[in-house]
From TrEMBL, chain A:
<protein>
    <recommendedName>
        <fullName>Amino acid/amide ABC transporter membrane protein 2, HAAT family</fullName>
    </recommendedName>
</protein>
<dbReference type="GO" id="GO:0015658">
    <property type="term" value="F:branched-chain amino acid transmembrane transporter activity"/>
</dbReference>
<feature type="transmembrane region" description="Helical">
    <location>
        <begin position="93"/>
        <end position="117"/>
    </location>
</feature>
<feature type="transmembrane region" description="Helical">
    <location>
        <begin position="173"/>
        <end position="191"/>
    </location>
</feature>
<feature type="transmembrane region" description="Helical">
    <location>
        <begin position="304"/>
        <end position="322"/>
    </location>
</feature>
<feature type="transmembrane region" description="Helical">
    <location>
        <begin position="52"/>
        <end position="73"/>
    </location>
</feature>
<dbReference type="InterPro" id="IPR043428">
    <property type="entry name" value="LivM-like"/>
</dbReference>
<dbReference type="Pfam" id="PF02653">
    <property type="entry name" value="BPD_transp_2"/>
</dbReference>
<keyword id="KW-0472">Membrane</keyword>
Automatic annotation (TrEMBL), chain B:
<feature type="signal peptide">
    <location>
        <begin position="1"/>
        <end position="23"/>
    </location>
</feature>
<comment type="similarity">
    <text>Belongs to the leucine-binding protein family.</text>
</comment>
<dbReference type="InterPro" id="IPR028082">
    <property type="entry name" value="Peripla_BP_I"/>
</dbReference>
<dbReference type="Pfam" id="PF13458">
    <property type="entry name" value="Peripla_BP_6"/>
</dbReference>
<keyword id="KW-0732">Signal</keyword>
<feature type="domain" description="Leucine-binding protein">
    <location>
        <begin position="32"/>
        <end position="380"/>
    </location>
</feature>
<protein>
    <submittedName>
        <fullName>ABC transporter substrate-binding protein</fullName>
    </submittedName>
</protein>
<dbReference type="InterPro" id="IPR028081">
    <property type="entry name" value="Leu-bd"/>
</dbReference>
Length: 345, 396
């Protein structure tokens, strides 16, 4: 019987899978993800697609805020940059999806570099406000640059297709999003176990100490912004193909706030936590829709609709208040109890 | 035996095939399921709640009258929170889970734009009476019908009233419009009026969407001696502009699009909200002399609670009138209700009357927009009502 995980070498310490059980669970999860569309309805598949797209962006935010400790409310702005890049390139220039996706990520990363520069001198709330301003600026740019962005009319994107294969249905698009989410998770996990990831963590814990240890703080903070924005840009492009329409209404500040709440609910700094946070926050909204819908009939009364918003908000506030380590914290606690039972530690 | 089995099987398959061919999605022997996507939460719920409550009233009424050709109507409502992504998600859910036959609530302009590819792909009959935008019918989709004039047409008609009825030809005109498509559409109507009557256009003020402070704009307007101001704001902007004008002691005539025809605009503007004009294609809730309004208010009193009654506004009348159009098309199809039939009946509407709620509604082959006639209403801030002050004007 396994009594614990003991890393005896440096390579074991930074390995992707720390024990065979993790490998088995990962394989099981991948298999489940592959067969899921065969079992789910189109509507549920579409919901899962939305969650997976959000997860790509939130993993990016987690690298910036959770791992590096740089608070950003600019995610809606980066998402808009990615979404609009994909929409303009595909709808107006006929570029294929396989080119639009990286182009959207790179465009958002370029903006991330620009936004990242103030982060060299700003921290905490000041940085949060600066990044929030970025979203507002991007909205104004989109509305003003009408010749490129079509202003407030928005842009309808073509059906997604890759190498001649049309991914028009939610079920076919699912596999593309799944592949990108898998790459996003692997990318994030790899960054975190590399020198760059350790530099990010050092900056999060104490940037002055990190500098004393020889970590080039300015460079790594910009890295964090660029990598995070790339992720969010790709998520924006996927969102544009998923909804098949973009306009500024789709990228409100609320999205940035929701994204931060997702990483807090999931567990700051954890890639798995970011994904779980997305599932919890977006899933909660759907569950509440279902429960209240089945309780209150078709329309329900006005008060029932307001109750939904209240329950949704309260759940997130309670999480922030009583479980700051998020769902991953709860998972770790129960796992330790199970492993160490009957001992407390 | 073999012959008997083959015969029975063939007959069964033919019957099943026949039934399959007849049954449209969302239509059963005794029920028709319709869908409505509305913003029911957040600030735009001002529109969505009123619209959905009107549909609820219509549903109760039509079912009390025995349904449509014996089939009861059931409306499934989805809240999109005015977010295009959620509108699309809601429609997908209604198509798959609720199996809707048609869509009679299409939320806002961008929200409908996000749903349009799916509406077109699945051939869902849909009626938009909430937010009219030329992208919704230009190019036209086979199954999407739009009722009501564009903001451009609405404001142009309002300008006609100002000049021809109020005699405001030699005044100094100005427009304050927000920097988006809505603002551009209002400006389009304003410029059409300016050009048509050779008006003195002294100022065009573009402001940022979501702007809260208009003191600089109104000081400019005062300096330019503006006496007529057309507002290209959505809701709160009308009130702020009115308040600023009052603060600067400006004696101006104020005209807004139908979004100014809301009691919150009056309430936010306070005493400054008295006497302004709004161009609209539906009457006011208090216009009980209009048969359609009187009937709707009777039904609303019967089927809605007191708090629900407080949520009603012009979007309720637009929603109810839209439902009347749809009811007519579905009734005309008889027992054999299919999507193709409803689309055909809608397309065939020629001067269809909604008891004065809309002007006559006409569609045609490849014509999916019915720009119904516009009227001008005047605000009475004290009793929170609006009065119809013009005849209906055909739009150009």
């Amino acid at each position: 019987m396994r009594t614990g995980v003991f890393e005896e070498s440096y390579s074991e310490l930074i390995s992707l899978y720390r024990n065979p059980t993790q490998t088995y669970w990962t394989v099981a999860l991948v298999l489940a993800a592959l067969v899921a569309p065969l079992l789910l309805t189109n509507h549920l598949t579409s919901l899962v697609n939305g969650m997976m797209i959000a997860a790509v962006g939130v993993i990016g935010l987690n690298l910036l805020t959770g791992t590096t400790g740089l608070i950003s409310f600019g995610q809606a702005g980066f998402l808009a940059v990615g979404g609009y890049t994909a929409a303009v390139l595909s709808a107006d220039y006929g570029m294929p999806l396989w080119l639009c996706l990286p182009a959207s990520g790179l465009m958002a990363a370029a903006f991330g570099l620009i936004v990242g520069i103030p982060s060299l001198r700003l921290k905490g709330l000041y940085l949060a406000i600066t990044t929030m301003a970025f979203t507002i600026i991007i909205t104004h740019i989109i509305l003003s640059a009408e010749s490129i962005t079509h202003g407030s009319s928005g842009i309808s994107t073509p059906k997604p297709a890759i190498f001649g294969v049309e991914l028009a249905t939610d079920k076919s698009f699912y596999y593309l999003i799944l592949a990108i989410l898998t790459l996003a998770i692997l990318g994030s996990a790899n960054i975190k176990r590399s020198r760059i990831g350790r530099a990010f963590l050092a900056i999060r814990e104490q940037d002055i100490a990190a500098r004393v240890m020889g970590v080039p703080v300015a460079r790594y903070k910009l890295y964090a912004f660029v990598v995070s924005s790339f992720y969010v840009g790709v998520a924006g492009a996927l969102m544009a193909y998923h909804i098949r329409f973009v306009n500024v209404d789709s990228f409100s500040l609320v999205i940035s706030i929701e994204a931060v709440s997702m990483i807090i609910v999931g567990g700051l700094g954890s890639t798995a936590g970011a994904v779980i946070g997305v599932v919890f926050v977006l899933g909660l909204a759907e569950v509440l829709n279902y429960v209240i819908g089945s309780m209150g009939g078709t329309l329900g009364s006005v008060s029932v609709l307001e109750l939904k918003g209240f329950i949704y908000g309260l759940t997130i506030v309670l999480f922030l208040r009583f479980e700051p380590e998020g769902l991953m914290g709860i998972y770790r606690e129960y796992k330790n109890r199970w492993v160490n039972w009957p001992f407390r530690y | 035996m073999n012959w008997f089995l083959k015969g029975t099987l063939t007959a069964t398959l033919l019957t099943m095939g026949g039934v399959g061919a007849m049954a449209a999605p969302g239509v059963t022997e005794d029920k028709i399921v319709l869908g409505a996507v509305d913003p029911l939460t957040g600030p735009p719920s001002l529109l969505g709640k009123a619209h959905s409550l009107a549909l609820k009233v219509w549903q109760e009424d039509v079912n009390a009258r025995g349904g449509i050709n014996g089939r009861k109507v059931e409306i499934v409502f989805e809240d999109d929170g005015y977010v295009p992504a959620r509108s699309l998600q809601s429609l997908k859910k209604m198509v798959e889970v609720d199996d809707i036959f048609a869509l009679i609530g299409t939320s806002g302009s961008s929200q409908l734009a996000a749903m349009m590819p799916l509406i077109d792909e699945l051939g869902i009959p849909a009626l938009n009476n909430m937010a009219v935008n030329s992208h919704h019918f230009n190019p036209p989709l086979e199954t999407l019908f739009v009722v009501g004039p564009t903001y451009c047409q609405e404001i142009a008609a309002g300008m006609t009233y100002l000049v021809e009825e109020l005699g405001l030809k030699d005044e100094k005109y100005a427009i304050a419009f927000q920097d988006d498509e809505f603002g551009d559409d209002v400006r389009c109507g304003y410029l059409a009026g300016v050009e048509k009557y050779g008006l003195d256009n002294v100022l065009e003020l573009e402001f940022k969407r979501g702007q809260k402070d208009f003191s600089a704009e109104m000081l400019k307007a005062r300096a330019a001696g503006v006496t007529v101001l057309v507002s290209g704001g959505v809701v709160a902007e009308h009130s702020t502009l009115l308040k600023e004008a009052a603060k600067n002691r400006m004696d101006i005539t104020f005209l807004g699009a139908h979004s100014a025809h809301l009691t919150p605009v009056q309430a936010l503007a306070g005493s400054a909200g008295d006497g302004y004009y709004a161009a609209d294609y539906v009457p006011a809730l208090n216009s009980l002399e209009v048969p359609g309004v009187a009937r709707f208010m009777d039904l609303a009193n019967k089927y809605l609670s007191e708090s629900e009654m407080d949520s009603l506004n012009r979007y309720a009348l637009a929603g109810y009138a839209g439902a009347m159009i749809f009811e007519h098309a579905m009734t005309e199809c008889g027992k054999d209700l299919t999507r193709a039939c409803v689309v055909k009946k809608m397309e065939g509407l020629d001067g269809f009357e909604t008891d004065g709620l809309f002007g006559p509604v006409t569609y045609g082959d490849g014509v999916r927009h019915a720009p119904t006639a516009v009227m001008v209403l005047q605000s009475n801030a004290e009793d929170k009502t609006f009065s119809i002050v013009s005849e209906r004007m055909e739009v150009e």
